[in-house]
Amino acid sequence: QVQLVESGGGLVQPGGSLRLSCVASGFTFSVYTMRWYRQAPGQERELVATIISNPAITTYTDSVKGRFTISRDNAKNTVYLQMNSLKPEDTAVYYCNTWKTIMGTRTDYWGQGAQVTVSS
Fold first, then answer.
1. In the chain, N or C terminus with fewer CB closer than 10 Å?
2. In this predicted model, what pLDDT tens digit does every residue of 20-41 receive, in sequence order?
3. For residue 54, what pLDDT is reported?
4. Which of 1, 2, 6 is CA-nearest to residue 112?
5. Exposed (0-12), middle (13-18) or buried (19+): which is 89, by Cβ within 10 Å?
6. Residue 88's pLDDT is what?
7. Are 93 and 115 spatial neighbours (Cβ–Cβ below 8 Å)?
């Protein structure tokens, strides 16, 4: 079955950096679009970044453009989120995501989440 396992979260000071990783299994990773979402306390889950499989086209929400970079290594079935110049408002649980559409029904797959806390 599909599994997504995130790692790399933690506590960092404002202006610092973190890199999140998400290792995928149970599907043909190289052909699927991968996404990073985040959810801050009391807020809705927000799409942060997307990377299409081939070519590796990327998109970002405006608040992270120029600071975050999404990338993938298809040989390792892994998607990354490099986060630089972190701000307190980036504090959230970050989730790796992909979805499949089978016979017209979309099924979303989520990792367990990685806590990112930006604080001095």
1. N
2. 999 999 999 999 999 999 999 9
3. 75
4. 6
5. exposed
6. 97
7. yes
- Please, are residues 19 and 27 in contact by the beta-carbon 8 Å criterion? no
Paired tokens of 120: 């001095």
Whether residue 71 contacts residue 80, with contact meaning beta carbons closer than 8 Å, is answered with yes
pLDDT at 77: 97
The per-residue pLDDT for range 65-94, each reduced to its tens digit, is: 999 999 999 999 999 999 999 999 999 999
Residues comprising the chain, all counted: 120
H-run or E-run covering 107: strand 105-110
31 Cβ partners below 8 Å, 6+ apart?
Answer: 53, 54
- Chain-centroid distance of CA 76 in Å reads 16
Could you count the other beta carbons within 10 Å of the beta carbon of residue 81? 27
Tell me how far the alpha carbon of residue 3 is from its chain's centroid: 14
Contact between 95 and 39 (Cβ < 8 Å): yes
90: left (phi over 0), alpha (psi -120 to 50) or beta: alpha
